[in-house]
Amino acid sequence: MDLVDGCRAFVNVSELGSFTRGSAAAGIAQPVASRRIAALENHLGERLFDRSTRRAHLTPFGRDMLPWARRMVRLADAMDHAAQRARQRPLRMAVPAYCTTRDLAELDAEARSCDLVLEFRPAEPGERLDLLHTHDVRAALTAVPPDEAHWTVTLGLGSAVNLRPGAVHLETLRIGRTGSTPRRRVWIQPEDDLPHIRDRLTRLRDSLGLRPSQVAVADSLTSAVGEVLGSADLLLCSAAQAEEFELQWRPLAEIRLTRGFTIAADVGDDAERLRTLLWPGIARCLGGDPNP
Known about the structure:
The protein is an alpha/beta fold and 292 residues long. It has helices spanning 3-16, 19-26, 30-44, 60-87, 101-113, 125-133, 195-207, 221-229, 239-244, 268-286; strands spanning 49-50, 57-58, 91-96, 118-123, 139-143, 151-159, 186-188, 215-217, 234-238, 248-251, 257-265. Helix content is 46%, strand content 18%.
């Protein structure tokens, strides 16, 4: 039997002195209230009501049990309230610093429809892991190689000046013998300052004979975009970022560079829940494919 439902029916009927009014107060049909009270009596081993009269009179045993039943109902209600508050407690999550406010707001709205309340901490890759290890967040979107990732984002080059159709060949950035050609650089934003991206790009730079300074890591995404907007330099970025900054975007010709992300969490269930419920929304925030 459901002990709480039985106690609730018992309390309502006893306080209103009527099975009809008591069942209405409990929001159930009278036969249901009668069955629950009968089940409670059977569980406790004694009659709670004297059914020889029209009104619902408590038996001596019923009077003894009523305070306990009230306590049981209050505790159950308090537990329901505590559970609701716990479900609404924000789940702090570290996210890439480049995620836009609009995308994060939409992700938050999607989470709320799944009874999840998210609180975002934008941060660079290394800082996101630190926040998780120090328990400042409960979950983090961590940067990983593409073959370990749940979400991937293809990278290319963004430019404020016109680019030719098709993929960009980095060898075209090579400075001529005369040195009269302006030195164009490729800027790596902090999100991509990772071995599986940065090292592959610098090795390609060296193999093509570009100057070391022609592939550089920017101090921030803002400074990288500023360099590109004011010159013919190129930004290593996703197509979604290029659209945000009103840059032309082309893929790289010589290599394929990809961001990879997964969810790390203090509690494994949190990671699985976020992946399962919010996969498309997280993909949109990252600028990746919205379909698994």
